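Let us work through a complete example step by step.
Step 1: write down the sequence.
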Amino acid sequence: MPPKTYLRDGRAPVPKDARVSATMSRIRAKHTKPELAVRKALRERGLTGYRLHYAKAPGKPDIAFVGRKVAVFVHGCFWHGCPHFQPRRPKTHKTFWNAKLDRNMERDAEKAKALKKAGWKVITLWECRVKKDVGKEVGRVVRSLL
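Step 2: predict the structure and record it as tokens.
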């Protein structure tokens, strides 16, 4: 079977190694492993009725408790610049990656600000913390709902 070819749309630099392109193509924006773990833990605690990627709230939070105006973002450490784990940035194509990752962090701050202005409480859960102790992180969500 020949290796899969990936279409380039010009938004990102072409990786030096085709395996990098294959790996990057499997990264998802929605329904990530940490997000699924948080949702499972919420259900186990009896918390249902939330909306996923709720488009009517500013910033489309990953999990939204609409009636209580609580927005939960489950951020990947690399993509959103985790303050706890502080992942290293790529060494190749530094200009592209620094601009992209910095803009992600700016966008996150803009979303949180817009939600707070609209009267929402914003909770950010980080991938590294969810992996370490999902129960503790979900406890933060539970406390915000009380």
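Step 3: interpret the result. The chain has a mean pLDDT of 87.
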